[in-house]
Automatic annotation (TrEMBL):
GO terms for biological process: polysaccharide biosynthetic process. Belongs to the bacterial sugar transferase family. NCBIfam families: wecG_tagA_cpsF (TIGR00696). This is WecB/TagA/CpsF family glycosyl transferase. Keywords: Exopolysaccharide synthesis, Membrane, Transferase, Transmembrane, Transmembrane helix. GO terms for molecular function: phosphotransferase activity, for other substituted phosphate groups. Residues 274-462 form the Bacterial sugar transferase domain. Pfam families: Bac_transf, Glyco_tran_WecG. The chain crosses the membrane at residues 242-260, 280-302. CDD domains: Glyco_transf_WecG_TagA. PANTHER family: COLANIC BIOSYNTHESIS UDP-GLUCOSE LIPID CARRIER TRANSFERASE, SLL5057 PROTEIN.
Length: 467
């Protein structure tokens, strides 16, 4: 529900604009702000007649701009360039640069409509297939009845119709114009016509009308929470988006690493090479395993009610906690039932393991035996919380019980696989696991990582010690 911030919104645009901070990435100045503040600022600008040309930058835009000087110049000349997507956040982290909220247009759009309805700012939507912009406008008006829709039209018109389109937008008296023609077409169209458009605020918003019209479903929150909405989009439109996301993401990661290395002292150290391996390996694995992961998600949903993904706090490098993701392999109330089966624990030390755990579902038994349940941790790898190779992440209660050398396991980033994962897994005593982990950390190298990755595949197929 919208909370009235009329007094807050009455602050002038100029005062707030002067306080905006930016982060420089790939030669672009990206606005660093929160989504609510950005929505307030843009709607206030429209109400006060302050002209703003707003564009968004995501991984795909970076790739396109590298080969299109005109498009790059347009983005650089934007009054505001907003960071869009997890790729930019990851690149900023690699370059050791601060980054604010993910200000993607799809999430920002309803916030803008909400505030526009309060301040009486009218909006115009242009773009998409016939009927799509209208449907998106109706959806927003149904959600915010006070929202004034100045007009809408599709994005299919010839160059000689542009004058009529501009005249129609101007006649509508819109305060904000959302142009959804896709990149780089929309940015170039706005740049060519901005001097003739009377609306104070112009935004190039990509394909968001498709989501709010209902033509394409938005990614479930589980995908968005881990920064993988692009995976969902790829599943929805594989033929159209395969090149953009499969090849494009790999290319973007290469650009991000080289940018960090050349501009912020990333260098070719062992840690930076390991991070590059994590990024390329993680994206490649995600692309290859996407069909399998989708099949598993469906199987989990069919067998039992509850979330498909299981999230759990684990302890990462230098004792930093993080949220680790897995496919759910147990009944929903598994944690509450742990005390009931504590006496069945087959491990004589810190870790809790039962060969035939009654809480495990049928699908869960299969994905645990084959380690498929661990695949969502690829997201943790891409986010920089884990590595492909490293000591397995421990639970907080396990860390509290550490003694002796065990604490040194926290000196490295936790991994998807490690030495003992390829040598017997749960059948190896905890003390031996610690020795193997410390040996890995003392002798860490890319060659060792590649060797362990190679050994992991047959180890998974044998399923020795997996339960």
């Amino acid at each position: 529900m919208y909370i009235d911030h009329t007094e807050n919104l009455s602050r002038t645009y100029n005062a707030r604009h002067a306080c905006l901070q930016t982060t420089r990435l790939f030669g672009f100045n990206l606005v660093r702000s929160t989504r609510p503040n950005m929505a307030d600022l843009l709607v206030n600008a429209a109400r006060d007649g302050q002209r703003l040309h707003v564009n968004f930058l995501n991984a795909h835009c970076v790739n396109l701009a590298a080969n299109d000087d005109h498009y790059r110049a347009i983005l650089q000349d934007s009054d505001m360039l907003l960071p869009d997507g997890s790729g930019l956040a990851l690149a900023a982290r690699m370059a050791r640069q601060p980054m604010g909220d993910n200000l993607n247009g799809t999430d920002l759009f309803p916030d803008l409509c909400e505030r526009a309805s309060v301040l009486g700012v009218s909006i115009y939507l242009i773009g998409g297939q016939p009927g799509i912009a209208e449907a998106a406008a109706r959806t927003m008006q149904a959600k915010y009845p006070a929202l004034r829709i100045a007009g809408y039209r599709d994005g299919f018109f010839s160059p000689d119709q542009t004058d009529a389109v501009v005249d129609a937008i101007n006649a509508s008296g819109a305060g904000m114009v959302f142009v959804g023609m896709g990149v780089p077409l929309q940015e170039k169209w706005i740049a060519r016509n901005s001097a003739r458009l009377h609306a104070p605020v112009l935004l190039g918003v990509g394909g968001l009308f498709d989501y709010y019209s209902g033509r394409i479903p938005r990614a479930p929150m589980a995908f968005r929470a881990v920064g993988c909405e692009w995976v969902w989009r790829l599943m929805m439109e594989p033929r159209r988006l395969a090149r953009r996301y499969i090849l494009g993401n790999l290319l973007f990661m290469a650009r991000a690493w080289f940018y960090a290395a050349s501009n912020h002292g990333g260098g070719w150290s062992t840690s930076s090479r390991k991070r590059l391996l994590d990024l390329f390996g993680g994206i490649a694995a995600l692309m290859l395993l996407l069909p399998l992961m989708l099949f598993v998600a469906i199987a989990i949903a069919i067998e039992t009610r509850g979330p498909i993904l299981f999230r759990q706090i684990r302890i990462g490098e230098n004792g930093r906690p993080f949220v680790m993701w897995k496919f759910r392999s147990m009944v929903v109330d598994a944690h509450a039932r742990r005390s009931e089966i504590a006496a069945l624990n087959e491990r004589d030390s810190i870790c809790f393991k039962i060969r035939r755990d009654p809480r495990v579902t049928r699908v869960g038994a299969f994905i645990r035996r084959t380690s498929i349940d661990e695949l969502p941790q690829i997201i943790n790898v891409l986010r920089g919380e884990m590595s492909i190779v490293g000591p397995r992440p421990a639970l907080p209660e396990e860390v509290l019980a550490y003694q002796g050398q065990a604490w040194k396991r926290l000196h490295g980033k936790p991994g998807l696989t490690c030495i003992w994962q390829t040598s017997g897994r749960a059948e190896i005593r905890f003390e031996e696991q610690v020795e193997m982990d410390l040996h890995y950390l003392r002798n860490s190298s890319i060659a060792q990582d590649l060797a362990l990755i190679g050994r992991t595949i047959p180890a998974v197929m044998k399923a020795k010690g997996a339960y």
